[in-house]
Amino acid sequence: MNIDLKGHLALVTGGSGQLGRVMCRTLADCGADVAVHFHQNRASADRLVAELTGKGVRAMSVQADVTVQADVQAMQSRVQAELGAPDILVNNAVIQYTWTSVLEQALSDYESQFRSSVLHNVLMAQAFVPAMQAKGWGRVIGINTECAMQNAPTQSAYVAGKRGMDGVLRVLAKEVGPQQVTVNQVAPGWMISEDVPDGDEAADYRAGVPLRRRGTDQDIANLVAFLASDLASFISGQYISVSGGNVMPTI
Q1: Which residues share a beta bridge with 142?
Q2: How far apart are CA 141 and CA 184, in angstroms?
Q3: Which residues lie below 8 Å from residue 103, measured CB to CB, with a gap of 6+?
Q4: Could you please report the per-residue DSSP string of 25-63?
């Protein structure tokens, strides 16, 4: 059984970042053409595009602030003109900030997380999903987090944004399902990536994971590729944890 994405076009927001770059590589390895979104790091995105085209697929980098409607609409126009209409959308970008207690967290941090988690997904859906509906096939994959279930101290702004994102995407799944567009969420744990090694500081975290280890960025990319494929054509509206059992969605 193979994951074959030939003939499909994926757009990955935050595509040159820690998890995003491996998603882009994996989607390309499955045959998909890939649009790599970036906000500030053009050089990193362009290097990744060169790597992807070396795999024999079409690829491009595209800049946008995914929390701004005009930027997202302009991105849609640029990708459409160069590669066509994406039918796989991976909403991965997020704004980073310093975590602290609810009593001390700046209100601007709650606003930034709302913009990067909720508005990001709304704006991307409004710009790109209509073409999927017209085609009668599409995949929307939001990158959530295990934190949305943990609700640990200092996580409040991040959790608030990601829980809002969860609500938006569950509603979207019901609205666009009749046109065979699936909408799902992948929720990483604290993953190992090129920029985030598995050091001694993670010992307590590893000890709390049933598998007693941390996963990798490739574990996330594998699930994204599966959800993007026809193998997952009857899976929609789901929040899927990739955390080694560290969090367990309940029924």
Answers
A1: 91, 185
A2: 5
A3: none
A4: HHHHHTT-EEEEEESS-HHHHHHHHHHHHTTTS-EEEEE
Q: How far apart are the first and last CA of the chain?
A: 29
Q: Is 239 a catalytic residue?
A: no
Question: Which of 188, 190, 192, 186 is CA-nearest to residue 208?
Answer: 190
Q: Give 117's DSSP letter.
A: I
Q: Is 36:47 a contact under the CB 8 Å cutoff?
A: no
Select which of 110, 158, 205, 239 is catalytic: 158
CA 95 to chain CA centroid, nearest Å: 13
Q: Which two tokens stand for residue 7?
A: 């003939």
Question: CA-to-CA distance for 128 and 49, rounded, in angstroms?
Answer: 21
Q: Give the SS3 label for residue 108.
A: helix
Angle between the 20-29 and 217-228 helix axes, to the nearest 10 degrees? 50
For residue 19, which phi and psi values (nearest 5 degrees)?
-85, -35
Residue 108 C-alpha from the chain's centroid:
23
**Distances, alpha carbon 85 to alpha carbons 74, 75, 76, 171, in Å:** 13, 11, 8, 23
Which pLDDT tens digits describe the chain residue by residue (251 residues)? 899 999 999 999 999 998 999 999 999 999 999 999 999 999 999 999 999 999 999 999 999 999 999 999 999 999 999 999 999 999 999 999 999 999 999 999 999 999 999 999 999 999 999 999 999 999 999 999 999 999 999 999 999 999 999 999 999 999 999 999 999 999 999 999 988 888 888 999 999 999 999 999 999 999 999 999 999 999 999 999 999 999 999 98
Hey, what domains does the chain have and what are their CATH numbers?
Answer: 9-242 (3.40.50.720)
